[in-house]
């Protein structure tokens, strides 16, 4: 697996290519290019796409797309919007950089291109992270370091996948924000999730207001145990948690009680569980 980083942009994965230079490009037929099967973005802004079409008609393709060779034709690696706009502008040929990439590198490049240039829908981002973990064996730490993000941010993004279907659709459609969605992740009852999401849409509630609504509803819920009073965090426990997070490459939570406590280690797929188990046996 490539060890090149992603946080500095596509040039980190393609260091020998200046993206703005045409010296390393070839002109290839548009109809010989197929779309990137690992493209994380599912929806494209029609207005922005049409603006690009007009720009291409006036100035041509300024920045080449990146492709990899197939048995027949080419497969797109980066530049999906430019490729789509070229099709709409009815171009016959397009400048392209031809490179050899593995499947995991294709997903990485597509992900970083979207994250850095045109913010992905939070769910698309979460799905891409999960695909990197499930298909290519990445850990949360791997993804964080290669994308230039913090590990807790990757973990919080992945948690959005646990939301109910209706709430996910609200998030995809922009009816609720990523902040709203992260607050709703703490609500395990899907019916309550939907109820609160509907309140967000109808009343245009802020994230802070939603946190208060969630707390109020949890306290009112029949049979809900009373929330224990928060105990001031022990610096030693915090340090130990951080070291365990680094060791296992995932979130670790230590809970202390009066006479007993627990250590909770999160995993998101069978492969991660196997990896964590191996590390446990080495202790």
Can you summarize the main beta sheet? 5 strands, mixed
Strand arrangement within the widest β-sheet reads: 1-5-3-4-2
Helix fraction?
A: 40-55%
- Report Rg: 23 Å
CATH architectural grouping of the largest domain: Alpha-Beta Complex
Shape: flat
CATH level-1 class of the largest domain:
Alpha Beta
Number of strands: 7
Chain-wise SSE layout:
Layout (H helix, E strand, L loop, with lengths): L25 E4 L3 E2 L11 H14 L5 E5 L4 E5 L1 H9 L4 E6 L4 H15 L4 H15 L3 H8 L3 H9 L5 H8 L5 H7 L5 H14 L3 H14 L14 H14 L3 E5 L4 E5 L4 H13 L1
Parallel strand pairs: 2-4, 3-5
Antiparallel strand pairs: 1-5, 3-4, 6-7
Helix pairs in contact: 1-2, 3-4, 4-6, 5-6, 8-10
Brief description of this entry?
The protein is an alpha/beta fold.
Model description:
With 283 residues, this protein is α/β, with parallel strands linked by helices. It has 3 domains: 10-118, Alpha-Beta Complex (Conserved hypothetical protein from pyrococcus furiosus pfu- 392566-001, ParB domain), CATH 3.90.1530; 163-224, no CATH class; 235-282, no CATH class. The chain is built from 12 helices and 7 strands. The protein has helices spanning 46-59, 80-88, 103-117, 122-136, 140-147, 151-159, 165-172, 178-184, 190-203, 207-220, 235-248, 270-282, and strands at 26-29, 33-34, 65-69, 74-78, 93-98, 252-256, 261-265. The protein starts with 25 loop residues before the first strand and ends with a helix.
């Amino acid at each position: 697996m490539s060890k090149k980083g992603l946080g500095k942009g596509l040039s980190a994965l393609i260091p020998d290519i200046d993206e703005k230079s045409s010296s390393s490009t070839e002109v290839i037929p548009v109809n010989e290019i197929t779309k990137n099967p690992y493209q994380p973005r599912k929806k494209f802004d029609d207005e922005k796409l049409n603006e690009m079409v007009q720009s291409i008609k006036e100035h041509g393709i300024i920045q080449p797309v990146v492709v990899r060779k197939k048995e027949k034709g080419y497969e797109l690696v980066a530049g999906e919007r430019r490729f789509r706009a070229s099709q709409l502008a009815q171009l016959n040929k397009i400048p392209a950089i031809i490179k050899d990439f593995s499947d995991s590198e294709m997903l990485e490049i597509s992900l970083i291109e979207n994250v850095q240039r045109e913010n992905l829908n939070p769910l698309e981002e979460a799905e891409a992270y999960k695909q990197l973990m499930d298909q290519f064996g990445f850990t949360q730490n791997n993804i964080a370091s290669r994308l230039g993000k913090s590990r807790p941010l990757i973990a919080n993004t992945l948690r959005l996948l646990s939301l109910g279907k209706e709430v996910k659709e609200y998030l995809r459609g922009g009816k609720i924000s990523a902040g709203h969605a992260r607050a709703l992740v703490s609500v395990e009852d899907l019916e309550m999730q939907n109820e609160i999401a509907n309140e967000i849409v109808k009343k245009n509630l802020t994230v802070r207001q939603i946190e208060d609504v969630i707390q109020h509803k949890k306290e009112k819920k029949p049979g809900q145990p009373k929330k224990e009073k928060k105990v001031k965090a022990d610096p030693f426990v915090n340090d130990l948690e951080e070291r365990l997070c680094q060791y296992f490459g995932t979130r670790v939570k230590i809970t202390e009680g009066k006479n007993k406590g627990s250590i909770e280690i999160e995993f998101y797929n069978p492969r991660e569980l196997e990896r964590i188990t191996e590390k446990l046996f080495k202790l």
